[in-house]
Amino acid sequence: MEMERREFKELKTKNVKFIRPLMTDILGNMLDFTIPIDEGPSMVKNGKGFDGSSIEGFARTEESDLRFDPDMETVTVLPWEYKTEDYTWREAILFGRILDSNCVEYAGDTRGFLKNILDKYADIGAMKCGAELEFFVFENNRTPSHTDDGGYFRSGAFGEIRKESQLMLNEMGIKTEFDHHEVSPSQHEVDLVYDDAMKMADKIILSKYVIKKIARKFGAHASFMPKPISNINGNGMHVHISLWKNGRNLFFDETKKGLSDMARSYIAGLIKYGKEIQVTLNQWINSYKRLTPGYEAPTYLVWGTKNRSAYIRIPEYLKGNESATRIEVRSPDPACNPYLALAMVHAAGMKGIEEKLEPAAAIERDVFHMSADERKAIGIQELSASIFEALELFERSEFVRSVLPEHIYKKLLENKKIECANFNRYVTDYEIKNYYSTL
């Protein structure tokens, strides 16, 4: 406790006046509240109670008393200063566990779920991840109006948003590796340097927050929506994964100078269970508008080295490099809950290792150009084309039921079914455009 008191005292010397505990709802939306820094030591000792009944996917009213238990190792000072006419101050943020009224780990906490999955397989190896965050910069938050007509590696406008975001993220200890304009007009990408999976999930949440804040500063709006505009590429969040133990990359085979048998089984697990976990990687109705042929998004459960429309890609230009050998899972989008997505990816991959699965041969052709008979002959499965199909597979999956806590499973299903029902009742612009004047 004395250590925490010293840490809070040090924060005060940096003009930090408030602490903001962070968490996410079941959909991955960032939530926070704020306490004066002098209340920090009390929060460390006793936690901080809150009402969970109004949070998406959290408790019912009769069991709404929840408690935030801070993880002091995640304390980060936000790299900007708040100002009013009379005051200036800074704020520090931190993540933590959610406990129920009996001080037991809360079953609806997806961050806690990821921790449990990582702990379950820790003796085999530690999951490390990198993430590519794609986003659009539009004129405002009301309509997706383009801000440039740039293309891949053609800067377009608002490259300063990417640069300032990187500078701020680096100040927060979030290392970035790369930034560039993406394929579509107004589309950008910032890549995060790989880290332990839990830290990467936290960094994804914070990076989206920072990028949106910087965009507002420039009078624009950053959107991580998977497919805000038809007929152009959507936003993906490619996740790069490897397993490590005792300083060695378990996905690397020294003799082959390439993928290990463990990596191949991990890939096979992801392919076998890919359709069953898809709704946790592509959790919105809009997510499936991105997963269509011709837009560099995966539509088939295959793996390869050159095929960028594959579900899993192996970056071949790094062949023979142990530290960089990894698999790239290309189906997730940046609107997913990263804790839930990484947990289900890891569970499926580790199930492949447990079952000693061997993937089918790598596919380097664009599967879209194969005939249906050719795809069937080599056993290629197609990813679900809609959330309706993905939900059906998710709901009846024995694998999902064996991995997900009952609370998260039920609440996610309930939430997504409500979303689908609301969508089905909504009259879209497409219907007005195509039916209104002729029917």
List keywords for this structure.
Ubiquitin-like (UB roll), alpha+beta, Creatine Kinase, Chain A, domain 2, 13 helices, 2 domains, 6-stranded mixed β-sheet, 22% strand, 9-stranded mixed β-sheet, globular, 439 residues
What does this structure look like?
- The strands form four sheets. Strands 10, 11, 12, 13, 14, 15, 18, 19 and 20 form a nine-stranded mixed β-sheet that branches. Strands 1, 2, 3, 6, 7 and 8 form a six-stranded mixed β-sheet that branches.
- The radius of gyration is 22 Å and the shape is globular.
- Helix 3 (110-120) runs parallel beside helix 8, helix 6 runs antiparallel to helix 8 (338-354) and helix 10 runs antiparallel to helix 12 (406-425).
- It starts with a helix and ends with a helix.
- The mean pLDDT is 91.
- A hairpin with a 5-residue loop joins strand 1 and strand 2.
- By secondary structure, it is an alpha+beta fold.
- The chain folds into two domains: 2-105, Ubiquitin-like (UB roll) (Roll); 115-407, Creatine Kinase, Chain A, domain 2 (2-Layer Sandwich), CATH 3.30.590.
- The protein has helices spanning 2-13, 40-46, 110-120, 159-171, 197-217, 261-281, 287-290, 338-354, 372-377, 387-396, 398-403, 406-425, 429-435; strands spanning 16-24, 30-32, 35-36, 48-51, 65-70, 76-77, 82-83, 88-94, 96-99, 126-138, 176-181, 187-196, 221-223, 239-245, 248-249, 252-253, 258-259, 300-304, 310-313, 327-329.
- It is built from 13 helices and 20 strands.
